[in-house]
Amino acid sequence: MWMTDFGGAIEKSRVFPTVLGDARFLNNLFPKNEDDAERKNCYFFYRYEIGEDGTLTLWTMNEELFADAIRLGEIQGQITNENGKEEKILTDSSENLSRFIKKHGAAKTFSENAQTYHRLPSVSTVTETSKSTP
User: What whole-number distance in Å separates Cα of residue 108 and Cα of residue 101?
Assistant: First the structure.
């Protein structure tokens, strides 16, 4: 379970891994909103690697590639434009999305720009360090 505080509203989502060949992916599920009967479950997909030092590197989807694939009918989905921002909603099956990623390769289907996260020291380490600092 992943919880994020967005200005006082806590978002809950479930995150689970998938492996396709040598590539690892995180599937981040945002359950449908009970107030919006038409909206289905929503997923965000990330490619990830965990380094030997515990560093987590995440790549987001290549939105242009997925948008082109939706327009060409290679995968099922919808493209909407709300408030000047184009949103891509993938509606295809897991099997077809996996096939699409395998066909194009993980490096091409996910952004070249990566986000890197480093493990923070444990609370006890931080407390001990702060006590020894004058």
Answer: 8
Nearest to 73 by CA among 101, 112, 95, 100: 100
Instruction: Please give the C-alpha separations between residue 99 and each of 27, 94, 111, in angstroms, as whole numbers.
Output: 16, 9, 18
From the list 27, 111, 20, the residue with the least C-alpha distance to 66 is 111
- The residue assigned the tokens 């997925």 is 66
Is the pLDDT confidence value at 129 over 50?
Answer: no
pTM here is: 0.69
Mean pLDDT throughout 62-81?
Answer: 92
The span from the first CA to the last CA of the chain, in angstroms, equals 39
Read off the pLDDT band of 8 (50, 70, 90): low
Give the strand order in the sheet containing 110-117.
Answer: 2-6, 9-20, 23-30, 42-50, 56-61, 110-117
Q: Which amino acid is at 21?
A: G
11, 29 Cβ separation under 8 angstroms: no
**pLDDT tens digits, 112-123:** 888 898 877 765
Contact 12, 2 (CB under 8 A): yes
